[in-house]
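tool=predict chain=A
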Amino acid sequence: MNHSGYIINLGLIDYQKAWDLQHLLWLKRVAGELPDLLLFLEHPHVITLGRRGNRSHLLASQEVLETMSVPIFHVERGGDVTYHGPGQMVVYPIFDLKEYGYRLIRYIGQLEEVILRVLGDFRIQGRRDPVNRGVWVDGEKIASVGVTIKRWVSFHGFSLNYETDLKYFELINPCGLEGKKMTSMAKILEERISRGFLLERICFHFSQIFKMHLEEKNIEEVIIGFSSPSPQPSPARGEDRPINFPSPGGRG
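tool=predict ok
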């Protein structure tokens, strides 16, 4: 069975605004007013604590975080503490999982599979850790997964470090793991990463793994009256362009 869905590229967007938007879109998906949605975005510097989040994993004081303008949010996703910031691709699937027959563990595994295949397109070999979910490269974590499922509809999702300033992870024990390091695609490859091509590859693998037909939409087409942020976090990372699904043979 093929499913239909919308791709919405929100660019750089404040965490609170994106969180509120997820709740609104979740309600509309539960009500059947929208198809499945795939949100792509980046956040200004922010730390979030999931349902299992423990403030003991914050290594910086509240005063330091305030000085650095790094707010903290305690949210309903799974997992512990993480950092989001520019250069990190955040993907929020708002899917009705009844239509896929997925339960939580299978769904998380499919998200990890998307990430693994995307990394493979960039010649990076990632791996899973059955104890600590997400995707790892040579013992360092490159992608984190934290989701919520209510009334069978998912929100929150995963974050993939492509050109992230990794110093910000020193403010926390990422995912509550002491002594673990984070990495990024740019660090591994020692080259710039095209955000537009990365977005294309993520969409391609979602379409393959979830058997979806994806169509680009502006958020204003989905939520009338919503004020959209700029779609491009940083021109230096390459212009976003209309999404197509090229074969994995070239990086474009």
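The two ends are 30 Å apart (CA to CA). The CA atoms of residues 57 and 173 lie 5 Å apart.
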